UniProtKB/TrEMBL annotation:
It comes from Haloterrigena salina JCM 13891. This is LPS glycosyltransferase, putative. GO terms for molecular function: transferase activity. It holds the Pfam family Glyco_trans_1_4. Keywords: Transferase. PANTHER family: GLYCOSYLTRANSFERASE.
Length: 342
């Protein structure tokens, strides 16, 4: 695909027979927005009211023969209605959230109605761009349609800052990054602190984390500036991402970029990377197992921690923006070919 520059960002433009896609979104992740911009996609916000409103929205769209990319689970019903009743080219799911995990292993807090709707809507997807191998496997089973894997990445400015950091590996400070949601497991980490043998401090960063209640060792920051976030990365000795399931969390990639070892759970897509640093960094999503992993790491010598930091940094190095965008465009083109669109 040829490319051109726009507002300082290189975009891939399709040939004369491949029009720019439509990107149907709810609350787009900044990395996904960059993926969409790279394809010169038209950004369209999806309907968020009930099922009938989403069906009406899908029926009302007329996108001609343009491919439509659905970001995550929220636009799936609208995308199915678009495929059945509206007008568009192939409907492509960007498998980038916990929707797929929930269909296979129901998650607490998700309704059976939502789960059924998402499962049914998968029948009308022509192909899937999955951000992890696990999501790709689930999507292939649900749709019986082509699937390609394309990992997210760390945005360029933050990547450069994180690569230059020197984490405080001799300390016992933990960073936990993400919106405060039950699915993200912050309460599991709070409960784990009572089982951790050493004194440690946890910095919770992200929207709504001010609502977290815990012992004196818990610091809640909410949404912070870029400079503050970088400082928190540098002051940490460990990241803990305790979610029971996660697609391929960029927060964990950012930690690896900074040379910050990560404790996470088997249901998180980046567990494959974390396990490469050492298998004991992957623990079950319960307070006891998370506490055991934290205690084990903090019992290590500084020299051993530095060895793990070097390994983590090596795994994080490959997830830069330029490479990630090129890989995304490449797999998008491959998927269109697999579908038979080109």
């Amino acid at each position: 695909m040829p490319s051109r520059q726009h507002s300082g960002v290189e975009m891939v433009t399709a040939g004369p027979d491949i029009p720019p896609p439509v990107f149907l979104y709810y609350d787009p992740h900044p990395v996904h927005e960059k993926m969409a911009s790279y394809l010169d996609a038209e950004m369209v916000q999806c309907e968020t009211d009930g099922a009938f409103a989403r069906i009406r929205a899908g029926r009302s769209h007329d996108f001609g023969n343009r491919p439509v990319i659905l970001e995550g689970g929220v636009p799936l019903v609208e995308g199915a209605a678009l495929k059945l009743l509206g007008s568009s080219g192939p409907v492509i799911a960007l498998g980038a959230d916990s929707t797929y995990h929930d269909i296979r292993n129901p998650m607490t807090g998700r309704t059976a109605t939502s789960r059924l709707a998402h499962r049914f809507a998968q029948r009308f997807v022509d192909g899937t761009l999955a951000v992890s191998e696990r999501i790709a496997t689930i999507a292939a089973e649900l749709t019986n349609e082509p699937t390609r894997v394309t990992h997210p990445f760390v945005e360029a400015n933050r990547y450069e800052e994180l690569r230059s950091l020197d984490p405080s590996l001799d300390g016992t400070r933990i960073l936990c990054l993400g919106k405060y949601r039950r699915k993200n497991g912050q309460d599991v980490l709070v409960d784990a602190l009572s089982n951790v043998g050493l004194d440690c401090t946890v910095d919770f960063v992200g929207p709504d984390t001010e609502q977290i209640e815990g012992p004196e060792a818990v610091n809640t920051h909410g949404f912070v500036s870029e400079a503050k976030l970088v400082d928190l990365f540098e002051s940490a000795a460990l990241m803990v991402f305790p979610a029971p399931a996660g697609a391929f969390p960029v927060a964990t990639l950012e930690a690896l970029c900074a040379g910050l070892p990560v404790v996470t759970t088997p249901g998180v897509g980046t567990a494959t990377l974390v396990r490469g640093v050492h298998g004991r960094f992957v623990a079950d999503a319960d307070p006891t197992a998370i506490a055991v992993a934290i205690d084990w790491y903090f019992s290590l010598s500084e020299n051993k921690r530095e060895q793990f930091s070097t390994l983590a940094s090596g795994y994080g190095a490959g997830f830069n923006e330029a490479s990630g965008l090129k890989a995304f465009a490449y797999e998008y083109g491959n998927l269109l070919a697999d579908i038979g669109y080109v």
